[in-house]
Amino acid sequence: MNIRTGRMNRRSMLKVSAAAAGVLALPRSAGSAQEASPAAAVDRIASATIVPSEEMVDVSAFAKEGPYRIGFSNGFSGNTWRTMTLASIEQEAARHDDLAELIIVDGQGDNTKQVADIESLISQEVDAILTIPNTGSSVVPVLRRAMQEGIIAFPFNLPVDGEEWTAYLGTDPASKGRRLGEWLRDALGGQGGIIALGGLPGNSYTAAAWGQAEAVLTEGGVEVLAFRDAYWEEDRAKIITADLIAAYPQIDGIWADGSQVSAGATKALLDANRPLVPVTGDDYNGLLRLYDEHRESEPGFSFGLLAEPTWESALALRSALQILRGESVPRIQTIEPEFITTENYLDYYRPNLPDGVFVDTDLPDEVLAGLFDA
User: Fold this and answer.
1) pLDDT per residue over 182-237, tens digit each?
2) Within the chain, which residues score under 50 in pLDDT?
3) What's the CA angle centered on 19, arms 16 and 20, to 5 degrees?
């Protein structure tokens, strides 16, 4: 960052203070992901199934002349899905000449810090605030304040309690949880015991997904041996599962809302010389690789996966800019996720890319390779 000496105006001081607090301010020319061709982003989002709500955003409350400044409050950045989400939003930002500044803040998994981050964005008088909240309740008051200040409040990926936000988009975690629960119940023939692994403690995504899955599983005759928060981290899931393996002599299946967690749990089973079992999750390349490597030697290993697109951030940024320009946008956009099983996994598996890649992405291979030093 270029800091001029002498007296700074209020906006410059805020930018310097934000940077000192761990804020990443991205000009449109910065970053290799931003320099990538936008064609992949356009094609992937255009080909997705996105169901709009009948209710539309009242753009008259937010429309204004550009250029625009937009903030993104990322609840945490502890896994590769978030890494790719950040790269996608940077790539999308590079496509818009009227976007003057994109300010990214990282809540580091701390609800209090995320609220403070959003308050900082409000004080910087950004035109819109995008956010993936850590919980559905903690950000409600501060998003309400943003709207009162005339700032677009646009949560995505993880639902927010109530209705005090401008627009929302993402997959439906409750629907995904139910479908994953149904798949696992059927894979087990309605019997046996499973462990369940979620994301951050108290997050609204896992809460909605597991609430539906647990009902489907238990009503279908499957026993839930344990539920643990695994923070959507592969290494943490592996450690947690190792402890559960010691506690339970037989584990017949694993429910998870993220495949990096399923991959960690599966590796724990391998380390313990336990048979691999049916698992659920999303579109994590590492789990697809595990299956490809062990499918012949582990006949009990199977999966039912529902993708969680990393391009949600790009679509959220694009939609926020449309609102600012006065263009019509549905208040809710629900993404229908790709369903991946052992029968079609080769259509998604990326053997030449690292485990950390989520395969439902708008990022070109060269950008992905750079992100993960492949």
Assistant:
1) 999 999 999 999 999 999 999 999 999 999 999 999 999 999 999 999 999 999 99
2) 1-42
3) 90
149 and 44 housed in the same domain: yes
What 3 state SS string does 208-277 have? HHHHHHHHHHHHCCCEEEEEEECCCCHHHHHHHHHHHHHHCCCCCEEEECCHHHHHHHHHHHHHCCCCCC
64 and 75 within one domain: yes
Cβ neighbours of residue 246 closer than 8 Å, sequence gap 6 or more: none
User: For residues 283 and 360, what is the distance between their CA atoms, to the nearest angstrom?
Assistant: 7
Domain boundaries, position 26: 10-170+310-336
End-to-end CA distance of the chain: 28
Rounded CA gap, 253 and 277, in Å? 5
Residue 143 and residue 26 share a domain: yes
CB 118 within 8 A of CB 142: yes
